Amino acid sequence: xxxxxxxxxxxxxxxxxxxxxxxxxxxxxxxxxxxxxxxxxxxxxxxxxxxxxxxxxxxxxxxxxxxxxxxxxxxxxxxxxxxxxxxxxxxxxxxxxxxxxxxxxxxxxxxxxxxxxxxxxxxxxxxxxxxxxxxxxxxxxxxxxxxxxxxxxxxxxxxxxxxxxxxxxxxxxxxxxxxxxxxxxxxxxxxxxxxxxxxxxxxxxxxxxxxxxxxxxxxxxxxxxxxxxxxxxxxxxxxxxxxxxxxxxxxxxxxxxxxxxxxxxxxxxxxxxxxxxxxxxxxxxxxxxxxxxxxxxxxxxxxxxxxxxxxxxxxxxxxxxxxxxxxxxxxxxxxxxxxxxxxxxxxxxxxxxxxxxxxxxxxxxxxxxxxxxxxxxxxxxxxxxxxxxxxxxxxx
Length: 396
Fold this sequence. Notes:
Blueprint: H1 2-23, E1 31-35, E2 39-45, E3 51-58, H2 62-74, H3 87-115, H4 120-144, H5 153-169, H6 177-206, H7 212-239, H8 245-269, H9 277-290, H10 296-302, E4 318-320, H11 324-327, H12 330-338, E5 345-349, E6 354-358, H13 364-374, H14 378-395
Parallel strand pairs: 4-6
Antiparallel strand pairs: 1-2, 2-3, 5-6
């Protein structure tokens, strides 16, 4: 009996504890500020558990900023606290491994050229030229690794075709082999990195019900199959029509046009589920013109993929996101903010366009409100829109 009573009491205590846990409010956001002689950082844990760091005040010398920038680009966020012990040693030896491997590759390439019967001096020059040409690949990858996510697939493929074209014409200028072939490799590798950065967002736009991994695998399988078939077709062309440089100069531009056209149509077929300045301008212009909200299908066929920053007259010719220092003088900033009380945006009308500056915590609704205010004919168009809506309601 005592054992039964003890068990009953334990069960009741557990139930009470669970009730208390349910009644307790969610924990407050954890944040703090760490200061030093030259730097102040604000740390905050996000709801998903990630630690975000914001620099509040920075008076560090330029050399220290360069070191910090290097660590931010080549080491994980939050290093060294975000990695396990031994990561630095591993990275040091991995860097040495790649350095020694690249050095051995240079020596082996030179040895192969010697073995092919070339004389030492030309072989050395050719080896150095070829190695520098391949080295441009890595320079392109380093530059584009930070910018690739901002580049669209169409621009990446145009860049890739540009690099391919340079490689095709390189036999016409053998004395400029290093410059032309190196620039071609540089452009192609930048394009490859940019294209890889856009793959996941494009596949995500098509995914439904959590099937992104399957969609990605199947899409890559199709790409691989067509790449193999394209290699076979290229071998046939190279042995028949394109056996000479003149043949390549004819077939190359034609294939490039087909390539760019296909990519353009692919991008137009991709669903548009987010808004950028151009899409927002298209929605505002269509709303004031007909009182209708454009669908994602309408937007993707109206958007200009080559000139994403083009201004639309019917939507107020508005630019979003320009640096504050380029739009306003410090002396006029407070006066402008008084014109938009309670808003998280400020506007400045210019001769060619209207600039909109958003606060850091502004929402999409704030951006849309600012866009509507920027339209010069807003009052007239609003009256027209209200009249159209009223007529529709009366008919219904």
